[in-house]
Amino acid sequence: MIGSQVQRLLAWAQLKNRTRISAGEVARALGLSPVQERKLLSRLVRRGLAIRLQRGKYLVPAKLPPGGRWSPGEYASLSALMASLGAQYQIGGPNAFQNYGLDTQVPNLTDVYNDRLSGRKTLGGLPFNFIKVAPKRLGGAVSQELPDGTTLWRASLARTLVDAVYDWFRFNSLPRAFDWIRRKCGEPRLRSELVTAALAYGNISTQKRIGYLLESLGFGELSRKLRREVARSPSLVAFDPTRPLRGKVIRRWGLVDNRPS
Q: What's the pTM value of the predicted model, to 2 decimals?
C-alpha cells in the first residue's frame, strides 16, 4: 500500500514534469521538516519508487507505476546521474567491445568515461565503473534514444577500437584489439574514422601502433596521416606492449615489431 505522503510526492513530481528531484525542494513543496523529508525519501528508495543518484539527488518515475513497483530502463539512472552532474560521458570498454560484437564476453559492470566521477557506483541495481578523463578525451560517441526519452551516449566503433589500444592495460585488450581492427578494417569508412579517432583521442603510442598496423595491412596511404603525427617522437615503443621489447626496429614509426614470428 502506497502511503499518502508518497502519493503526494509523486503527484507533485508529475505535476512539475520532473523525474529528478532534490532534497530540500521536496520539504518545501510538501511542507515537511528536514527529518520528515529524509524519512520519506528513504521510504521511496526502499519501496523501489526512487533511485538515489547521489547525496540529496533522486530519480523518480514520471507516473505512478502499476502495482506500486518501478523498474527504470537499463541505463536511465546513468543518464539521469550524468545530467544531474552536468557531466559529459560515454560508455566504453568491455561493454562497448561486447556491444559491437568484438568480444563475446558479457562484462559484469559498465565502464563510463566522464569528466566528473571516478570509481565504482551502483545505480538502480546496476554496477558502473566511472573513469574520469579530461574533457578533450571525450568524443567520438554516438547517441541512443532511451524509452523514457533521455539520451544515452556510447563510444562509436572507431572510438572503441582506439580505446582498446590506448587503454589496453585497464581493459586487458591487447593483443586482441589488433585482431579486432583487422576484422573490421575491410570497410573504407571505418578505416578513415579509426585514423580520425586515433588522431583526436589517442596518445603517441596508440597512434604508432594503429598506424603501423594499418600500413602492414596495406593501407599505407591512410596511415601516413598518423606517421606525420608521430614523426616528432623518435623514442621506441613495443607494437605489442604485453611482450618483451625484442624484434625488428621500424624506424619510420619509432616502433619495435615484437610480434611472434
A: 0.87
